[in-house]
Amino acid sequence: MTEQDSKSTGKGRATPSRKQQEAANIRPLVGNKSPEAKKAEKARIREERLKARNGMAAGEEKYLGARDRGPQRKFVRNYVDSRFSLGELMMPALLVVILISAIDSYVVQLATLLTMWTLFIGVAVNGWILGRGAVKALEAKYGASKVESGLKWYAGMRSIQMRAMRLPKPQVKRGTKVAP
């Protein structure tokens, strides 16, 4: 073999020693633990969470949980949000009941109890009617065989929440006609 052949086949640099190669391959097991790196990581995570929270509140599909994903669920949300429901009165009514229960009068407490049970029954009936109406509208839009299961319950549970506390936030105003 000639000198010219050996030069063309070489790698052009010296082989690193074992010590140098091992030093180059060392990686920290837990990442950069400097205070600046921790601060930067916390800021990055905070930004990601804020973006995800805002995306979920806005109803962006990729940020929604499995319970809220899909066009049929979005339709049901809009259907429920476009109407007033008795369920929205549940939390304020329970607060009033707690305050009234402090009154030491049998008649007042009995009247409050009967009113609450009437409201509970009204909320259940209202949720059932809303769920049934939403599913009927979906059946008209997609066909009865294509409607997902569990949408009546989804509509009923959403109708119980106070409008300001719903997530994803309502995308339609009350009184808006939600077309099938």
Record field, number of beta strands? 0
Major beta sheet summary = none
Radius of gyration: 31 Å
Proportion of residues in helical segments: 55-70%
Distance between the termini: 83 Å
Strand content: under 5%
Class based on secondary structure composition and strand pairing: mainly alpha
Categorize the overall geometry. elongated
Which ranges are low-confidence, i.e. pLDDT below 50, for 5 or more consecutive residues?
none
Q: Counting H and I runs of at least 4 residues, what is the number of helices? A: 7
Please, what is the average pLDDT? 89
Descriptive report:
- The protein contains seven helices and no strands.
- By secondary structure, the protein is mainly alpha-helical.
- Helix 5 packs antiparallel against helix 6 and helix 6 crosses helix 7.
- The chain is elongated.
Quick recap of the structure?
This protein is 60% helix and 0% strand. With 180 residues, it is an all-alpha fold.
Question: Which features does this protein show?
Answer:
7 helices, 60% helix, single chain, 180 residues, mainly alpha
List the helices and strands and how they pair.
Blueprint lengths: L2 H7 L8 H8 L9 H24 L12 H11 L8 H11 L5 H37 L8 H10 L20
Helix pairs in contact: 4-6, 4-7, 5-6, 6-7
